[in-house]
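User: Write out your own:

AI:
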Amino acid sequence: MVSMARAAKWVRAAVVSVALAGMIVLAGVVLGRIFAGALLVELMAGAAVGSVGLSLACRRVPNWVVAPLSAVLLAGYAVLALRVAANQADIPDSMAAIVRDSVQNGIPRLLTAMIPVEPTPDTIVVPVITAWLAGLAGAEIAVRAGRVLLGLLPVAALYGGALYVVGPNANTAGTPTIAFAALAVVALAASARPAQRADAGDAVGEAVRARAFASAAAGLAAVLVLIVAVGPWIGGRVGTTPVDPRQYVEPPQVDSLDESPLNRISGWALTPKEPLLKVSRASASPGKRLRLRLAVLPDYDGVTWRVGATYRNAGRVLPSQPRMPDTQLTEVRQDVIIDGLTGRLLPVVPTPTGVRGARVAFDASTGTLIRPEGLTAGLRYSVTSELQTPDLNVLPAADSPSGDAVARYLAVGADVPDGIQRLADQLADGNGAAFDRAVAIEEFLAEHYRKVADAPSGHSYLNLNFFLFGPRERGGQVGTSEQFAASFALLARLTGLPSRVVVGFDAPAAGGIVTAASALAWPEVLFDGLGWVAFDPMPKSKNPRPVEEDFTPKPSKPPTPPSEPPAPSDTPSSSGPPAVLAAPHKGGPPAVVVAGGASGTVLLALVAAAGTIVAMRRSLRRRRLTAGSPDDRITGAWSEFRDALRLAGQPVPAHLAATEAAAYAGKRLRKAVPDPDPDEMPPLDELVAGINTVGFAPGAADDAQALRAGEQVVAYAEELRSRRSWWRRLWWSVHPGPLRWR
């Protein structure tokens, strides 16, 4: 009889364990809908079987042994999963580098990756670890302690987290959700114990039945109240679009050097022999030269043409771009080796469909790539592109789209100069067809202006007005491809043609070195059914006709170099899950057993959360103080200073200037630190001077100034932290606030 009872307990434990593992696998199925391939589901299934199976096998082992043993197995399984993902993604880095990079960047890269997400080490590490922890917590509580309902909560939280991460990026998960609920019912049914029979006169039996009836009635009443209270709200949310967590995480960005690479054309023109990159022989080419695309600039505000792209971390295979009808497709494979080119933008033949040898981020709207870590000399990558060549014979009859869908490509800044507007009106007069207007602009620029290497840089209204109408004897009517492309795109928009500017290089199809002389900019116009078509407004003659022969504008003044303030940066936000309480019931193990069984898991989860926050805080500080231009690093140091005072309980008012903020910090120090000696605090003079330079003279700061500002703010924050009590210093280190403060 005893053996049968033990067998029944083992069967119940096995059924509950299988149900828990199946529910974790279903969470992997839900999350895997935004991943490419089945690797993520397989790895999460392995984590489910490993964690739940370990708890089932160690039911008789003391609970204080299971948690450390599970942590060791989790570490081994996580390393194995990272190696499998790295091998599938052809990542040649060392295992130590893969583990370090994945742990530091797992969450932001998962939430900024392009869908479908390629299962790389940094995108699978978080799902695998959370699946293991959910399995361990659920099995310890449900199998060892016998609290099945409470043990289902970690697994349900994992499933809800998977649904939240997917958000609106996949279809509804109706079938997995029904299966998840069914497995939960199976686990609860398997854990139910047969009721004890009692004689009619047995007072204990009567009390038990009365208590059971009262509990059932109370439970039914609670369910009815819950249905009435939240039922209408839940019903109203059924058809709504779920929140996309990606909106809270900043995707990879170009640095200030690449925000408007059109400004670099003039600099490259002055050093034409500088080697920028080397390309191999193209696998296929429609001509002797291939045009590599570096950046697409769709946004213009009257001062600067900007990239304005949203880059998402991508794998080796990139999403296919829409194929236009009557377009010739040519697949081009090419190897690129970076030499003197800097920034983050990667030059490729448009439009890339696959890349190997570099971790990239991709913007689907422009078909451009960046390397988030930045370009380094010797970087080598292979690109497969699908070059689309439209049928130019149908261009004369093609029309250009209009309306809200292309409003971005028609927008210009305020206060367009009268001369440019009148020139656009003149070129559009009598040219009703879209192609005719584009050709009229192209021919006007090619016939009236000269290309020179030492023309001043700039493409603001003032620069373009001087380029178009300035007297030749004073340096007008000459420019680089920067002014030709920018003028064409602006005039095209003023005549109703959706246009943009592209920056890239002319590269030999047979392979070779691409120098700065090969850099150029060109305009593109959008046509219905043909997509973006490039135009060439560069001069065809060495002796162009003066503009005055065909157009007489008002006199222009020489332009002044434009300046731009540094762009602010945002940091991702973080939040913690709510606590769940449950009351014990009579007949099961004592509460101390439940607490002991789950203590190791809770401790692991807390340590993991604290470690994640510390790693993300360190990554944020390193990115602020070392990444980007000197202006960006000084701005990042100022953010570190503000965060330090906020952690000390004395946030800096937003209206204070840099000098006032430093003085405010000295005054408030007496409130933040007991018995302080402000004279012993590290100085902030370099930080204040640096932030004033950024604000009033953008671009004037140098690397040394940024380094000094960063060293001062680190010393100040560490000194401020060291003067606090031990528990406040600990909370300072794990406080998630700086990850979400803006």
The CA atoms of residues 145 and 592 lie 10 Å apart. The chain has 19 helices and 17 strands. The radius of gyration is 32 Å.
